[in-house]
Amino acid sequence: MIYRPMYVERIMAYVDTPLIKILTGIRRCGKSTILKMIMQKLKDERKIPAERILSYRFDSMEYEDMTAKQIYDEIKSRLAKERTYLFLDEVQEISGWEKIVNSLSSDYDVDIYVTGSNSRMMSSEISTYLTGRYVSFRIYTLSFKEYLAFRSAYGTAGSPKEELANYIRLGGFPATHLREYSPDEIYTIVRDIYNSTIFSDIVKRHGVRKPDQLERIVKFTFGNVGNIFSAKSVSDYLKAERRTIDNETVYGYLEKLEKAYLLHRCHRYDLQGKAIMKTQEKFYLADTSLRYAVLGYNSDTLAASLENIVYLELCRRNYEVCIGKAAGGEIDFVASRQNEKIYVQVTQGIFDEKTERREYDRLLEIRDGYPKYVLSTDDFAGGNYNGIKTMHVVDFLLSDEY
């Protein structure tokens, strides 16, 4: 296992607190492995004996026909006399899982960790089931730093700047980097993740009657990553294919894709009015490889994928991320975290004066003193432009300073 300290250390800070620890995220992003890392730390660092650590994986056939009460009784029968550490993987597969967790937490001396990967594990759902008694951790696919660690351990890694192109195309699902897979082999794995998510977490769970309609919306959304989005644009796209759909249905499908963790919704923020705007959002993918696995590779999409990667990295670092609407145009990302804020522009390169003005002038309009960045893939990216820090995307992704 490649250690993922970004998550493990955050979660370990809550060991032995009365809060249920919930790990959420898209299928195959590494939640189960992170649970194993926490179990190992409890054994090695906290000296917790193995009999006080119980682990269940509920996507196993072993539990398919068991009721919530039967599972509760099974777990109860194995609890130690001292505090027991419970690890419940893919718990959303059990109808009534929240009652199991609530009862165990209330009735016994337990420290509980659970994972889930669909709408029943969204924050809005969890807050209904476990009011005020949990802390959640969003798990993402591999960061660029983690990707490089996997490449070094299981394959042959080039320089970080050489590997950036591979990371954009091949993404960061951990399972795709456990050995030297070809791009076709990687996309086969990613398509399997995509198909199982669409079928199990959306079509089957929500009783979607027109899966072909859903798939068309998915392909439109995947093909327009980083573009301002409206339901009308989807409707127009489907009309061109001689299919009709109303705006409410479009947004319903998008919400389901979001709840299955395939998509991230990024709101626009009015920098002058200091308010979130409720129209013309953007959507980003849980992993850039999804786009290429579903739609095929197209070099014209690299700029959007680069933006997607920066967005995910900001989310991994616990920023709340919005698109900034300024008087002079759009700021790619306004990222806030407690009392911190940064502004980020992303571009493949600054090749002429017009591009330079576009990327820098919008940031120069903002005079609140928070750090501002322009990120590019130029080999000579670096330096300072009137207080705006220019960085290569690789340096930004690997930096610990923000």
Account of the 3D structure:
By secondary structure, this protein is an alpha/beta fold. The chain folds into two domains: 5-138, P-loop containing nucleotide triphosphate hydrolases (Rossmann fold, 3-Layer(aba) Sandwich); 143-402, no CATH class. Helix content is 43%, strand content 21%. The protein has helices at residues 5-12, 31-44, 68-77, 97-107, 123-129, 144-154, 160-170, 183-206, 211-223, 231-240, 247-259, 288-295, 302-316, 353-364, 393-398, and strands spanning 20-24, 53-57, 84-89, 110-116, 134-138, 263-270, 275-285, 320-326, 329-337, 340-346, 372-376, 383-385, 388-392. Strands 7-6-8-9-10-11-13-12 form an eight-stranded mixed beta sheet. A hairpin with a 4-residue loop joins β6 and β7 (275-285). It starts with a helix and ends with a helix. The mean pLDDT is 91.
Describe the secondary structure blueprint for this structure:
Elements: H1 5-12, E1 20-24, H2 31-44, E2 53-57, H3 68-77, E3 84-89, H4 97-107, E4 110-116, H5 123-129, E5 134-138, H6 144-154, H7 160-170, H8 183-206, H9 211-223, H10 231-240, H11 247-259, E6 263-270, E7 275-285, H12 288-295, H13 302-316, E8 320-326, E9 329-337, E10 340-346, H14 353-364, E11 372-376, E12 383-385, E13 388-392, H15 393-398
